[in-house]
TrEMBL record:
Gene3D superfamilies linked: membrane protein fhac
Species this chain originates from: Desulforhopalus singaporensis
Name of this chain's protein: Cell division protein FtsQ
Residue span(s) of domain POTRA: 111-180
Alphabetized InterPro entries for the sequence: Cell_div_FtsQ/DivIB_C (IPR005548), FtsQ (IPR026579), POTRA (IPR034746), POTRA_FtsQ_type (IPR013685)
Transmembrane intervals: 76-95
Principal subcellular localization: membrane
Length: 334
């Protein structure tokens, strides 16, 4: 009986202590509710099951971290700032911003042109080229100087064949030019409104002759009266070849001794000298060979003429008399 009484007391006290402890007991991590589960959970049987429940709880949370959210926010801020900057830039240029920027650049004293150098000119005066350049000292900025436009302005001067522009920082511009060198004066047609033009070595007429201009050049006549076509083109080519040969300034036939090169209606060339009035008939074709023969003929005439004045008695010279033959006709000869 005693043993049964002790056993009953121990069992009763054990139930009491268990209920008391459960009142203050906190649910362990594995016992917390998971999404979609009831409050009643059974204790995991092993450690593997406990880890699986913990991972399920972790995966159920939002995946975006604090750092990722911060980067996204920063990207949005930068994109918005760039858009605002581009918009303001466009508005600035629309509202005359480009002109204001140009004026601001031109106002930098350090880069304003303080020296303009002209080289290579002999016919055209320095001031003419400076005026054509459009550069104003201490106003035009080297920063905004357009070299191509400046080159075009200089080459628009009739006597200028080409120009090269060199910028020397911070404030110097050098213009090196090559001038058109007249080879002859060519007679123009009535349609051109001018009597004569300066012609360069390429046969290009680049400037009308004005009163008081330099006319110390051979004169080409008769070409303007020829109709357009092969005859005129061939005759012009022969005239140009002859002038280039004479430009070599052989002592017996220098360029300054040549007065006129005339082209007949048939397209044949006739040459006149400054000091003598007799004609030299070149015909048409083989101008290079005929020039060489003429030099030899004049050399012989000048040599024999000492004391006898033989060349003054010449009536005409015919370069195409016969093949490889030159006819020198004297006054009074049959």
């Amino acid at each position: 009986m005693v043993k049964k009484g002790i056993y009953f007391i121990q069992k009763l006290s054990g139930r009491f202590s268990t209920r008391k402890n459960r009142r203050y007991q906190v649910k362990p991590l594995w016992a917390k509710n998971l999404p979609g589960q009831n409050d009643h959970l059974s204790r995991p049987r092993n450690r593997v099951a406990l880890i699986k429940q913990w991972l399920a709880m972790k995966n159920s949370r939002p995946q975006q971290s604090y750092r990722s959210a911060r980067k996204t926010k920063k990207r949005i801020v930068l994109t918005g700032t760039a858009t605002i900057a581009v918009t303001l830039f466009l508005i600035f240029f629309i509202l005359d911003g480009q002109a204001r920027l140009r004026r601001a650049v031109e106002s930098i004293t350090m880069f304003q042109v303080s020296e303009l150098l002209i080289t290579g000119n002999g016919i055209v005066a320095d001031q003419v080229l400076k005026d054509a350049s459009g550069i104003t000292l201490y106003q035009t900025s080297l920063l905004v100087l357009n070299k191509q436009k400046l080159k075009d302005r200089i080459e628009s001067v009739p006597w200028i064949a080409s120009a090269e522009i060199v910028r020397t920082w911070p404030s110097t511009v050098e213009i090196a030019v090559q001038e058109n060198i007249p080879l002859a004066l060519i007679h123009g047609s009535a349609k051109t409104g001018a009597e004569f033009y300066y012609m360069d070595k390429n046969g290009v007429s680049f400037l009308p002759v004005t009163p008081g201009g330099n006319i110390d050049f051979p004169v080409v006549t008769g070409l303007a009266e020829l109709p357009e076509g092969s005859v005129r083109q061939k005759a012009f080519a022969e005239v140009l070849l002859f002038l280039k040969k004479v430009r070599g300034n052989d002592p017996h036939l220098p360029l300054q001794s040549l007065s006129e090169v005339h082209v007949t209606p048939e397209g044949e060339m006739v040459v006149y000298l400054v000091d003598y009035t007799f004609p030299i008939f070149f015909g048409n074709g083989n101008t290079g060979q005929k020039y060489a023969r003429l030099v030899q003929v004049l050399k012989a005439l000048y040599k024999k003429g000492k004391g006898s004045n033989l060349i003054s008695e010449i009536e005409y010279i015919q370069m195409d008399y016969l093949q490889d033959k030159v006819l020198v006709a004297q006054t009074g000869s049959e």
